[in-house]
Specification:
heterodimer; A: 78 residues; mainly alpha; B: 740 residues; alpha+beta; 7-stranded mixed sheet; 26 helices; elongated
Amino acid sequence: MEHEQVEKEVTRKSALIYLPISIGAALLFLLAASLTGNHPLVARIGGMVWVGLLSLIVSMPVVISRVKKQFQAVPLEK
Amino acid sequence: MKRAVRDVGYEAQERSEGANALDRERQVREEEIKRQGRNLIIAGTIGLIVMIGTFYDMLGAFKAFVPEFLSYKWVIGLLTTPIVFGPGRQFFTNSWRGLKHGVTDMNLLYATGIGAAYGIAVINTLFPNAGFGGEGATFFESAALLTAFIILGRWLEALTRGRTSEAIRKLMKLQPKVARVMRNGQEEEVPADEVELGDAILVRPGESIAVDGEVFEGYSAVDESMLTGESLPVEKKAGDPVIGGTINKTGAFKFKATRVGKDTSLAQIIKLVEDAQASKAPIQKLADWVAGHFILGVHLLAVVVFLFWFFFGYQMFFDPNSSFIMSPYKLGEIGVFGFSLLLSVTVLVISCPCAVGLATPSAMMAGTGKGAEFGVLFKGAEAIENTSKLQTIIFDKTGTLTKGEPSVTDVVVSEQPALNRVAGSVNSDRLLQFAAIAERNSEHPLGEAIIRGAERRGLQVVEPETFNSIPGHGVEAKAERTEILLGNRKLMKERGADFSALMPQAEALEADGKTVMFVALNGQAAGLIAVADTLKEYSAEAIKRLHKLGLEVAMITGDNRRTAEAIARKVGIDRVLAEVLPQDKAEEVKKLQAQGKKVAMVGDGVNDAPALAQAEVGMAIGSGTDVAKETGDIILIKDDIRDVVVALEVAKATMRKVKQNLFWAFFYNTLGIPLGAGLFYAFASVVISPELAGLMMAVSSISVTLNTLLLKGFKPSVGRGQRPASTLRLQPAQAPTGND
C-alpha cells in the first residue's frame, strides 16, 4: 500500500513538472511560427502538437526518474 | 521432508528446476515466436495489399489484375487501420507502460513514428484541405510497412533467441524423465524428479542414469562422454560414483542416490550455462547505457530536425519535383508541415538502436552455448570478455599439467654410519616404510605416492604414534621409537639435518624432473625418496598452441626450482615460479598483474582458490563431477588441458562477433541518421521515406542476427577426435543377483 502511495505521489509530482514543460515548448513553437514567415494556421497548430508531443516524450522519463530518485533518497517517516 | 510427508500418507513432489525451466522457457519462446509470426502474417499480407494500392498508378500492365478501388485513399486507410491497432498495438502499450515508469525503449520510437504517420494520413484523408499536405500526403503505406518491417525484426529476434540457447536444451535433454526405484522391495518407475536421497535405483542396459549416486551392487560400463568427454565407456562396480544423465551400456546395476534434483552435476552445469547466458558483460552494459540514452537523444534530434526544416530548410532547399526514394509521391504536393514532419518521423525510425540492443546478448548467448558444447563452462558473460583479453596464463603443476598421481621412482639410502647408530639397520625398504608411516595420515599427492610405493613392495604401513603436518615443508611423525622427518630441504635445514653428502644425488634426480623428498630419522639424514608425476597427455601441445596465440605461459608450484624447471622444459614453459607456498600463489598472480598483464590461473580448484580468485580469469580444470566448486570463472569439465586453448578461442570468437555486431548496428544508424534527417537533400534532392527507414532497421536487426548465427559453425583448433584410444579392456557385465 505504501509503495502504491509513493507511486501515485511520484506520478502526480512528475506530471506537475513535465506537463508545463511540454505545453511551454508547444506554445513557444506556436509563438515562433506565428512571428516568423507566412505559415498557414494548420501548419502552426500541427507543428505545435508535434513539438509538444516530442517534448512530452523527452521530458516524461527524465522527470519521472529524477522525482523517483528524490523519493528514494528521503527516508519515509513512520 | 518428502519421506516424512509420505509417511503420514500424503505424496510430495519436488519441483525440478531443470525440467520445469526447460518447459517454461520453451513455452514462452514458442509463444513469442507464434505471436510475432501471427502479427507478421497479418501486417505483411495486408501491408503488401496497401503497397500495391499505393503504387497502383505505377503498375503498368499489371493494373489489369488489381481492382481500382484498392488505390482509393479511404480503402488504403481502412486496410492500414487493423495493422496499426492490431499487430502495431504492442508498440503503443509497451511504450506507454515504460514512460509511466520513467523508462524509454525502442517501442517508444516505433510508436511515435507509426502514430505520427498514421495520424497525418487519417487527417489528410478525412480533411484533405486542412493544409497538412492534402491527398498527396496520406502516408498510410508508411505506417503499414513500417509496422510490418519492425515486426519482421521482432520475429527474427525471437527465432534467434531460441537457436542460441540450443546448447542448454541439448544439456537438458540428457536429463532422464523416469527412474526405476526400489521401494519396499518393489520396483517402481517414478519421475526422475521424485527420486529421493538414499533411494536405491536399478539401471538396466541401455537406460539413462537418473541422478548422481554410488554403485552398491552389480557391474557395468557407462558411457559418460556427453558430460566428461571420456570417449570409451567407464567401468562401474560397487563403490564407484555414477553421474545423472549418462548412459548405462552393457550390464545392470543398482546404485544409491547421493545427489538429486538441482544438486546433480547435470543440473548444476545447466544452471551455470543459464546464469552465464543471463549475465551481462561490461561491453554489454556500455551498449545498454548508450542505447538507453540514445533513445531520448533521438527524440531530441527529431525535434531539432523538425524545427530546422519547418523554419529554415523548406524555404532554402525545397524542390517540388523531388521525391522520397521508393515512394510515388512528388514532394511538391506536401506543404512545410508535412515535409518537416515526415523527416522528423524518418529520423525517429532510422535512429532506432534495436540492433545495438541485440548485438551483444545474442553473441554472448551463442558463445556460452558454444563453449558448453566443448565442455567449457563460462560462468558469466564477463568471463568471456576477460578471457578474450588475456596475455599471461599461469598453470598449477600438480594435477593440472601433470596427472597428479606421482609414483616412487628412486629410494636412496644414506651411507652415513651415524644413521645405523640412531635408527638401526636401514635399507631402501625400511626407509620407504618409515616414510610411508609418516605419510599415512597425509592427503598430499606425494605422500599418497609413497604409501602406494610401500604397499607395492609389500611393506606394512602402520599408524604412527604421533603425526604433524608442516604445510609447505613436510611432515613429522613418530613410530617404532623413531622420530621421522620427511619433507623438503628447507625443513631439513631448519631442523638441522645435514644432507650435504646426498646433495649431488638429490640434484641429479631433480634435474631429471623428479621431486625429491628428504628423510631424516632421529635427526639424522637417512635418505632420499624420488617421486615423479607424469605429464598429462596433451600438456605440451596445449602450451605450444597457447604460445601460437601469442600468450605468455608460466607454471607455479611448491616444488623445488630444479624439478619445476625440468618439468617446464618438457612442456615448453619458459617462466617458472617455483617453491611457492600455497598461501603465496595469489601474490605471484598479483605481481604479474602489477606489470600490467591480464592474467589467467589454471588449477584444480582445491588449494588454488585464492590464486584463481585473484586472477582476471580463474579456470578450474577436471571439475566435471563437482561443479559445486565456487572458485574460478571458467570450469573445464574434461580433464584435457587443451580445453584452455578451446576456452580462449571460443572467447575470442565470441568477442569478435560482438564487435562485428556492434559495428553493423552502429553502421546502419550512422549512415541512416544523416540520410533520414535530410542532410543530402540540399545536394542531391534525395530523402528517405519512413517505410524505407523501417526496412533499413529491420535489415540491421537481420544482419546482426545472421552474423551471430554464423558462430554456430565455429570449431576450435583442437579437434575432439584427436584423442588416442584408451587401453581399457571391458569385462562382461554381471546382472545383480538375489532380491532386495
